[in-house]
Amino acid sequence: MLILSPCPCLFIIYHVACLVAASTRQQFLPSGLILRNATFDDAAAIANVLSAAFDPSPPFQYRYQFRDKYPVEHWRCTYESVLQALAVPFFTLQVIVLPKHRGPGDGSLVSVAGWLDPRGLSKQDWNSGHALASKCSHKDENSTRAADFDQKFSKAQHKYLNDVYGSNQFYLAALATHPDFQGRGYGEQLVLSGIDMALTLGLDVVTLIATPMGEPVYFSLGFQSIANFSVTSIDGDLAFPYDVMIYS
Q: Where is the chain membrane-spanning (predicted)?
């Protein structure tokens, strides 16, 4: 499963009241799967999942035009973005880990979700969309494309989510499962956990911006579509469609 929202690589992924209590949050799912909050020890494994899952994504390929030329830089920037996300109090990463001694991939971290509680952000950061901005040089990225994409995406996010729901939302910034383990419902489990967290935090709505691939999963979990938009490429020859969705 690859369900992203919207730019890959934790590029600009956007908890304070609940983070300490949630840091030990752990659930045992059917078949011995473990769903828990991520730790710094998970950073490399999360970077591997994100890199593998996002690679087929058209927005990813458009933005990270030089990823094949600079693969080490590309992975390092992903890894450093994960470390940054783990370090800030307004962002929660949750993961699913396979049980040990169950065959191929046992004990592996296979799926990850990133959630933003905007109550931990300044209004400027939330409105600008740059709550987490990568510190990498990003030789893997076409910076002109990235800046244009971010501006267009942030404008739509502001219009359909920030202006409407403000800080009273729990925003799914990223959701990805390693390609070798997709189609097993891991992403759905992470989204359901996020809905539960939102209720615990007292937030009235769960929000996300879905790619076409993710829409069926979110609809099946009870999300509703409230708007559609596309981000066009600089040359106008490509369009990346998105669906703004809510659960309330």
A: none
d(CA 168, CA 191): 18
Residue length, the chain? 248
What does the block give as tokens for 231?
Answer: 């981000």
CA dist 145 → 3, 54, 58, 151, 236 (Å): 21, 17, 13, 10, 12
Instruction: Give the DSSP letter of residue 178.
Output: -
User: Which amino acid, residue 62?
Assistant: Y
Residue type, 142: N
Query: Residue 229 corresponds to which amino acid?
Result: F
Contact 50, 8 (CB under 8 A): yes
End-to-end CA distance of the chain: 24
Task: State pLDDT tens for residues 26-77.
Answer: 676 667 889 999 999 999 999 999 999 999 899 999 999 999 999 999 999 9
Q: Which residues of the chain have pLDDT under 70?
A: 1-26, 28-30, 101-106, 122-135
**In whole angstroms, what is the distance from residue 98 CA to residue 111 CA?**
10
Residue 49 amino acid letter? V
